[in-house]
Specification:
This protein is α/β, with parallel strands linked by helices and 421 residues long. The chain has helices at residues 40-44, 127-140, 153-165, 179-187, 198-212, 236-246, 261-275, 295-300, 305-309, 330-338, 348-360, 367-380, and strands at 93-97, 113-117, 145-149, 168-174, 191-195, 215-216, 250-256, 284-290, 342-346, 387-392. The chain is 31% helix and 13% strand. Helix 2 crosses helix 3 and helix 3 runs parallel beside helix 4 (179-187). 53% of the residues are buried. The chain binds zinc ion.
Length: 421
Amino acid sequence: MTSPPDRARGNGSRPSGPPKLPPLHCPRCGAAAEDLSGCAPCRAEGVGVNPVPPPADLSGLSLADFPGGPWGWPSAMPVPGPPVTLGEGATPHLALEGPNGSNGADGADGTGLWLKYEGANPTGSHKDRAMAVGAAAARAAGADTVVAASSGNAGASAAAYAARAGLRCVIFTTDRVPGPLRAQIDALGAIRVVRRDLAARNAAMREAVERFGWYPLTSFVAPSPGGNGYANEGYKSVAYEIARDFGDRAGTVVVPTSRADLLAGIGRGFRELREAGLLGRLPRLVAAEPAGAAPFTAALARAGRAEQERVRVASVPSPAFSLGEETPCWQGLDALWRSDGSAVAVPTEDFMAEHRALGAGGIFLEPSSAVAVAAARGLAREHRDGAVIAIGTATGLKDTASVAGAGAAAAGLPELAELTA
Ligand SMILES: [Zn+2]
């Protein structure tokens, strides 16, 4: 008896298809993800959850040898094949305040207040860690066009890494995007599609994914469950870098939080390290939010996880333009629960004062980053156990309009003698 030739297997002379990406599973209910839109069963329960790939096995690796960045340990990333890189990651840890409140001096034991300066990334924000991995995932999935819906930082980063990977890039925005970010997206060769508001922006993005099959590097449903589950693995490298430089002296890590992709990624990175025996304890994670849009703070004020998962707040515009969600993404809550963490809502006047204080110390961050530093400064002064590390997610050059003129510049053309007082 003979069987017909099995054409699907090919004859071995054809080039193989794109390498396979590992499946994503919901960290809340365990369901396999069918696409990149978040967990459908959890969404039906009213909870936005972002499925993740299996955790990486870091056993046998040496933290002392970790060079930094998402590709520092390629085996920790979910994407096979050559990396897409512009030199992202390996960002500096800057001392802001010593353990006794001394200005700028780091304690000999590594305690005190520190800034992880993500503005040093190629496009000026932490998003580069994710978009490097996301662009590689898109290529591995066989995509020719990637899409992102973004208020700015993610769009600029997606444009850069798509270009680096040789992929076409379409960015969906509104006209509220700050001018420098518009310029950055345009200069990087992306097609920028402007819609009148966030709802219209998200609808256009969804159509691009569902009708044209373009590859999403950010969320495309509302409320957002979080960004691309493969790309977000790049954020684990923030945890690896902190663990390499601080070890068990890292007591608290404060993260400016919106959709919690960064917060959740840092939490996964620390847990992988502890699982492999490379870290003795998990640092406490803190979600820092502007007081006008603080769903994590509102959630943790409730009793019981079922209540916390379903919180919704009314978001108001703030100078922290890249923050401002109305619901707490579940994986962010999970990161806080697992690390005995907390959330802090910072009033606008407090984080703008922090923004000026940072500038006076030579550090120009976007206001969203100052939210985390302001929260971290308060925690450091409570004599926390170990170093308090704030994540400064982006350079201040991203959004100059909200801070221009906030400093001590003299208006007009003063007589120089007036400046000598
Ligand atoms: Zn689920």
